[in-house]
Specification:
The protein is elongated and about 80 Å long. The strands form two sheets. Strands 6-5-2-1-8 form a five-stranded antiparallel beta sheet, with no helix packed on it. By secondary structure, it is an alpha+beta fold. A hairpin with a 7-residue loop joins strand 3 (about 190) and strand 4. It contains seven helices and eight strands. Helix 3 crosses helix 6 (about 115-140).
Length: about 240
């Protein structure tokens, strides 16, 4: 049994006692989440009303934020179990930022007057707000002004360059002394973390005597080059 059954009872009008949740969360959040997962391993009592409400409020928004962030910012792979503490933390941040709106809605009588708006508001809090927070945080972290105080969220130059989806003429210099030159454009592709580095050039080109791009290799459908064969990559602006 958890020390505080957050949301264990439903009021007469069918609403969760969210103000009680807000008052108790800072004291019992981590204890109850850990206990819920431990007990669920032997009995599926996570589906009890108190623990289900706790899971929805303080795990689901955090997981949404984490997954959206992983989609837009390349990062190393982390297992779901390793992300649990982060999910709880990000859910708390989401709830803290939206707590003023929760208190206002709960005291406004919105549930009785416009029930659909009441449910739409909590859908926004649980599923939309975590996405917006991530998008805003990425915009802040990638701004030039913010770079003076914190590192860029993209860890590798490879991911930074190719995430822009710009078009380039490319010289790929290989560790064995050879090179592959071609066009990196809309149908080309480069892997991103946590995958190993690989690049697909949609066209392979023959160079002239001056090292410039002369013509496309006849019948070329491109080339895939593995990162372990690459010494460095040279980019030239493409105007097409």
């Amino acid at each position: 049994m958890s020390r505080v059954a957050l949301g264990a009872r439903v009021s007469g009008d069918g609403r969760w006692p969210l103000q009680t949740v807000a008052q108790a969360v800072m004291y019992d959040l981590v204890y109850n989440v850990a206990e819920s997962y431990q007990e669920a391993s032997t009995a599926m009592d996570i589906w009890e009303a108190s623990k289900l409400a706790l899971f929805i409020w303080f795990v689901v928004p955090g997981f949404i934020s984490i997954k959206v962030y992983q989609l837009i910012v390349p990062a190393s792979y982390r297992s779901t179990s390793e992300l649990l503490i982060d999910a709880v933390s990000y859910s708390c941040i989401n709830f803290a930022l939206m707590s003023w709106a929760v208190v206002y809605v709960e005291g406004s009588g919105l549930f009785s007057a416009h029930r659909w708006m009441y449910y739409a508001f909590y859908f926004f809090v649980l599923f939309v707000s975590p996405v917006l927070i991530v998008l805003l945080w990425k915009k802040i972290r990638t701004s030039d002004r913010f770079q003076w105080t914190m590192p860029h969220p993209t860890l590798k130059p490879w991911d930074f360059v190719f995430s822009n989806r710009s078009h380039y003429w490319v010289h790929v210099h290989l560790v064995d002394g050879g090179s592959v030159s071609g066009l990196y454009s809309s149908r080309s592709f480069a892997s991103s973390a946590p995958a190993t580095d690989q690049i697909y050039l949609e066209q392979v080109w023959v160079l002239n005597e001056d090292g410039g791009f002369d013509r496309m290799v006849e019948g070329s459908a491109g080339a895939i080059i593995s990162g372990d064969r690459i010494k460095y990559v040279e980019f030239i602006d493409y105007e097409g």
